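SEQUENCE WITH STRUCTURE:
===
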Amino acid sequence: MREPLLSGEFDHTLDPKGRVALPARYREYFRTGVVLVLMPDREPCMRVYRRETWEEFDKTFLGPLNTFEDEEASWKVRDIYQKLDEAEPDAQGRVLISSSRIKELGLSGKVKIVGNRTHLEIWNPNTHAEVQKRRRGGNA
């Protein structure tokens, strides 16, 4: 399957069980499973990777780190994998987000899904708007 450039902005709902439907145009792409990760010290959102794409990310950015001799690198990898979950989309293209990630990101009801080239991001809509406003110098 050709790797699409994931793009767009989508308003979706987090259901009471903690599931969110992936955008319809990307459901087939993620059909084989996803990696959900909250990156430490990065934007406050849940990243959604296709498994193969995550493996490439890991190989490129985490694999070269010397986690044996470099304590900071070791903690960086540990922090990432501590907040990483794998999920299988259900028949409706929904993925389950862990309750701890939902709480940490302040998700409930509406969520904003944003395409970011190699992955999707699931945001609290208010947080997304605040970050965009700050990034634009207060002019949302």
The radius of gyration is 15 Å.
